[in-house]
Q: What sequence folds into this?
């Protein structure tokens, strides 16, 4: 006799939630790395100025997203939407790539948070590595190994571009409101209207925007072909009626 499952009963009441403790621990460590780097920068610099940088804002998103994701993995609740996790991955990847490919090689000695007058030593060096190297690499590793593939759509790449666009408008508006000569009036050298003019800044923004959109499309494309690498992502067998040996077909 086959037992029937009552109608109207939520799936969570029939199939126990699947906890992922190792995933939760890893994501907690990523959150801690972001929070540590943020705390160091906020302690050593002016909080209002520090918070104006894309580096800081993207790492705040990492800290929040990974804290929530860690809690969900620990309790067995459904993960965050792929659109959210993919967007966070794109933004923190932008932070890491722009720093290592553009800012770190700048002849002006532009530091992690735009302060060219301080050498990256001591705690500043620690926060620099945490916010520009550790969190981007950890977010990529989490996405590749601990996040289920196949949830991203092409339109998500365009939606993610709203964040860099809003940041561009914020940076230009902030610079226009601050008096000339203010410290770190424009947060990054390629957004410096005093140096490049608005036409030059718009040109830089178009170039970087196209690169960011291409990166977003690459993330979506990779999501469609990458395998489920993590052991926690393998499908479970049916716990309601597990297969049994039977002569009936």
A:
């Amino acid at each position: 006799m086959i037992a029937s499952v009552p109608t109207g009963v939520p799936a969570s009441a029939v199939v126990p939630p699947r906890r992922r403790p190792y995933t939760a621990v890893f994501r907690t460590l990523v959150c801690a790395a972001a929070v540590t780097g943020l705390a160091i920068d906020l302690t050593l610099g002016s909080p209002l100025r520090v918070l104006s940088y894309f580096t800081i804002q993207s790492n705040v998103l990492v800290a929040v997203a990974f804290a929530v994701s860690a809690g969900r993995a620990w309790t067995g609740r459904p993960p965050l939407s792929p659109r959210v996790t993919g967007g966070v991955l794109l933004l923190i990847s932008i932070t890491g790539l722009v720093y290592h490919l553009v800012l770190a090689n700048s002849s002006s000695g532009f530091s992690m948070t735009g302060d060219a007058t301080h050498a990256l030593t001591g705690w500043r060096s620690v926060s620099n590595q945490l916010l520009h190297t550790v969190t981007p690499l950890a977010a990529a590793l989490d996405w590749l190994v601990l996040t289920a593939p196949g949830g991203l759509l092409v339109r998500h790449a365009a939606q993610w571009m709203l964040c860099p666009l809003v940041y561009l408008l914020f940076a230009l508006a902030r610079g226009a409101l601050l008096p000339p000569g203010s410290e770190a009036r424009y947060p990054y050298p390629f957004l410096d209207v005093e140096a490049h003019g608005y036409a030059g800044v718009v040109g830089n923004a178009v170039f970087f925007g196209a690169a960011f959109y291409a990166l977003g499309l690459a993330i979506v494309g990779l999501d469609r072909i990458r395998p489920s690498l993590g052991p926690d992502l393998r499908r479970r067998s049916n716990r309601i009626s597990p297969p049994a040996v039977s002569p009936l077909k």
Notes: Residues 18-229 form one domain.
